[in-house]
Amino acid sequence: MGFREKIMGLRRSTHQWGLVASAVLLAGTFTAYAAVSHSGMLLMDTSSGDNWPAFGRTYGEQHFSPLTQINDETIGRLKLAWYYDLPTGQPVSGPVSVDGVLYTATGYSIVRAFNVQTGKLLWEFDPKAPEAAGAKLRQGWGSRGLAYWNHKIYVGTQDGRLIAIHAKTGKQLWSVLTVDKDDVRFISSAPRVFDGKVIIGHGGADVGSIRGYVTTYDAETGKQLWRFWTVPGNPADGFENKAMEMAAKTWAGEWWKYGGGGTVWNAFSYDAELDQILIGVGNGAPWNHKIRSAGQGDNLFLTSIVALDAKTGEYRWHYQTTPGESWDYNASMDMQIATLNINGQPRKVVMQAPKNGFFYVIDRTTGKLISAEPIVKVNWASKIDLTTGRPVENPGIRYENGDRALMWPGPNGGHNWLPMSFDPRTSIVYIPTLEMPGAYDDRGIDAKTWVRTPGSAVDAAVNINLNADEPGAGEGALLAWDAVHQKQVWRVPNPGFWNGGAMATAGNLVFQGYADGTFNAFASATGKKLWSFDAGAAVIAPPITYQYKGRQYVTVLSGFGSSGALFGEKVARFGWQYREQARRVLTFVLDGKASLPPMVKTALVPIEDAGFVRNDELAGKGAEVYGRRCMVCHGADVMSGGIAPDLRVSLVPQDAEAFNAIVRGGALVPNGMPRFQELTDEQMAGVRHFLRTAARDFAEGKANKWKGVGAAP
Ligand code: HEC
Questions:
Q1: Which domain, by its residues, includes 17?
Q2: Does 496 fall in a domain?
Q3: For 353-384, what is each residue's pLDDT tens digit?
Q4: Rounded to 5 degrees, what are φ and ψ at 171?
Q5: Residues 372 and 448 in one domain
Q6: What is the pLDDT of residues 127-167, one digit of tens each?
Q7: Is 328 an active-site residue?
Q8: Is the pTM of this model over 0.90?
Q9: 80 has which bridge partners?
Q10: Residues lining ligand 1, Cβ inside 6 A
Q11: Which of 13, 14, 283, 709 is the most buried (most CB within 10 A)?
Q12: What is the Cα gyration radius of the chain?
C-alpha cells in the first residue's frame, strides 16, 4: 500500500466512525484523529526517516532507516557529535528521537530527553522502580526501550507500571499498574503504540506460576481497553474467549496450577495494512513440558506469533515455532513486517528468528509458514516441515529416562532480544546470532512431587548447564540473510558472545556494536567493515538514526548489560568492570567535533582475606544459594563481566555486617541490588563463604570448584 492510500485508509476509518457516533463523540473522534494522524504518520513503514519514534523505528519494526547522508562513501567523516555520561546501571535500551529531541530509558527506566544538536539534557524522569519492585527486582534486566506518541513518551518499569510522560516537560501524565503488585511479573520491554493504544506485556515465566497476557491502554488517558491471555486458565473457571477454549485442547494435566507461562516480554509489531497487532509469545512455566503439561500437547500459544485484531484484541491466527516447548525456546524476538517477492508473487509476510535457531517467513494474512531454515548450529530438529509447519524433532531432545540432552542452541537462543534489521530494498535481514549449547536433564525432579522454590532466579523444573566448553560455544556473528531465498549472503564473526542489535540504512550500511567496546559500520552488500569507533565500553544496545535541520545523526548507548552475566567467562573476557567504565549516550554526525576522554580499563585486583579458612562443605551450600539467586546478575562462575560488581574482588563478603546489610537488609536496593530478606543465617553464612572461596581461588589463579554450576531446578 502506498503512502497516499494509507492516509486515505485512516481518513476512511475516521469517517465510518463518525457515521455511527453522536455529535459529542464525533467531536472527540476528530480531536483523536488529529493526534493519530501525526503520530501514526511518523510510524508508517514508508515514513521519511527524519524521526525514529519507536523501538524498531516504524510499526513494522524493521530497524531500518531510509536516510542516506551517512553512507558507504561519507562514512569516513562520521565522528562523535556529543556524549553524555550515564550513571552506573544497565544501559542497553533502544532510544527514540522525534523533532530534534532524543529520549533514552536506561537502568530501571530512568528517562532523559536531550537536544540532538548539542546533547544538552532537557529533563530527567525517575520512576524509582527498584524501590517499588520488591522481589521483582531479582530479575532485573533494566529497560529495553520506550515509545513516542502524540507528544508523550511511554515507558514500562521493573515493578510493572506503564507510565506516560509529557515529551516537552518530562512530567508524568498517567501511570497504570499492569501486573499484580506481589506476583513475579515485571516489565523490561519497550511499549508499542498504534491506533491511539499502548500495548505492553511482561516477563516472569522463568520464575513463578504465572499466566501471560498483553494489555492495551488508551494512549491519552491510560484507561484499559483490552487484554489477551496467551495461555488458557483453569477450564473450571470458564474460558475468556474461543481462542482459549481451542488452546486448552492442547494442554494436559493440571497446567493452570503452574500458570503455564507464555509471557510477551519483548516483541510486538503492528501490521497497519491488516490492522492487526502481532505478539511474540515466550516459553512455558515451568520449562519442563513433562511437569507443565504431563508431557502432552502443543501448549498453545507458547512460543508462538499470535495475530490479534488491533481494535478488539480478538484472536486472528497463530504460528507456533516450537510445539510442546521444553528448553526456553521462546518466540519473543523481534518480528519484522514486510512484503517479499516470493516466486514472482508479492507476499505479505512477518519474519522472525526466535531462540530455536531457525529463521521463519510466515504469511501474515493467514499465519501459514512459507519457509524456515536454520541460521546457527541447530541439532534439535532436522528441519521444519513446510506442509505441516512443524519441526521434525531429532530423538533424545526431550531428556527422557534421566538422559541428558545437549541442545544447540541452548536457552540463550540462536538469536536473542538484540534486534535484527531488515533492508526492504534488498530483502536482506541482518541478524546478531549466538552460538551456545545447553545441557538439559531432569534427574531428581519428579512430576508428582515437584513444587516451586520461591526466590529462585530461574525455577524451570529442569537442570540446565550452558556447556560453554563445547567447541564453537560462545561465538556469535552478524549474519546477512536473504529472506526470500533463505540463504546466507555473508557472515562476519563477532569478537565473542553477546553483541549488539543491528541497524541497516539506505546509505548501504549496517551498524552494530560489539561486546569488545567498538561500534562498527559494515557495507551492507559485502559485510566489509568500513568504520569503527572505540567506545571504551561494550556496545550492545541497538543503534538508531534520524535527521534534524538537514543533518543525519546516529545514536547508540554504550555499557554492558542485559542477561550477559549468565555467560560467565564468555563475557568476562572483555575485562569490563561495573564501576570502572562510564556508560554513555553517544551521538555521531558527519564532521562531528567531540572526543571521548581516554578509556579506563584495569585488571581485576585480587583481595587479601587474611583470616579466611576454607570449608568446602559450607561453600557448597552457598554455591546453591548463589546459583539460584545471585548468578543471574553476578555471573556464572562468579564472573560478572561488568554487568554487576565482580564479587571475587569485592571487600563486602569479608565483612559479615556489611554483607548482611546489603544482601538481607536491602541497603543497595535503589542501585539495583535486590533484597533477599528470606535467607537464613545458615544460607547467609554459606553464600558469604562461597564468595570468599571464589575470591581465594581467583587470587591463587585456580578455577572455581563449582565451575559450571548452572541454574538449579
Ligand atoms: C538483579 C541483579 C542482582 C542480583 C540477582 C543480585 N545482585 Fe548483588 N548487586 C547487584 C548490583 C547492580 C549491585 C551494585 C549496586 C551498587 O551499585 O551499589 C550489587 C551489589 C552487591 C554487593 C556489593 C558489592 C560491592 O562490592 O559493592 C554484594 C555483596 C552483592 N551484590 C551480593 C549479592 C548476593 C549474595 C546475591 C544473591 C543472594 C546478589 N547480590 C544478587 C545486582 C544483583
A1: 3-43
A2: yes
A3: 999 999 999 999 999 999 999 999 999 999 99
A4: -90, 145
A5: yes
A6: 999 999 999 999 888 899 999 999 999 999 999 999 999 99
A7: yes
A8: yes
A9: 588
A10: 88, 137-138, 140, 629-630, 632-634, 644-645, 647, 650, 652-653, 659, 662-663, 668, 671-674, 676, 687
A11: 283
A12: 24
